[in-house]
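Researcher: Let's try something more involved. This one mixes different molecule types, so please make sure each is placed in the same coordinate frame as the others.
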Amino acid sequence: DIQMTQSPSSLSASVGDRVTITCRASQGISNYLVWYQQKPGKVPKLLIYAASTLQSGVPSRFSGSGSGTDFTLTISSLQPEDVATYYCQKYNSAPLTFGGGTKVEIK
Amino acid sequence: QVQLQQSGPGLVKPSQTLSLTCAISGDSVSTYSAAWNWIRQSPSRGLEWLGRTYYRSKWYNDYAVSVKSRITINPDTSKNQFSLQLNSVTPDDTAVYYCARGNSDFYAMDVWGQGTTVTVSS
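Model: All components are placed in one shared frame. Result:
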């Protein structure tokens, strides 16, 4: 099965900083990569699908890129409401494996 | 607006069967445009996809290897819902369980249930 590895596992940044999270697949998955945001105590929320397509209603400071095995989620200007754990997920075929998550905090 | 409402017990004894249901409103369990998933989350495992059911002229299931021998996901077209059964549970199955719609138009889980905390303990 394809493994999904996220890095870093956690990060602390200042409000307004540019934040980058990476997700690597152990085999190529084309652009079948999804990003979710999970705020503390809440249900995961879809942020980006097809590696780079923003879900309706998601602020434009979020963006995604990549194809094949290497993917990136970028927050262009970190806001206090972005404190959350971010997960990637492969969606090309079952099993629909998640990455281990990246916890984002405000410095 | 699609909504998923989960129900089921929050406490299950070891060796018994965990059973949860996810009721769908605003969509159909038989739609060709979605698959219906179960996911769980625990501090030790993070988010773990368990399996899904979907209809494409007939019913299909996919299951995670880690639970394949113990899991059944069934659709119920009469009630427009789907269910999770996990047999022979151990304390390691303690987690928050979520159901979610997998949207086949853009290949992502776009609607999630509220989550059910299930504890396996005697």
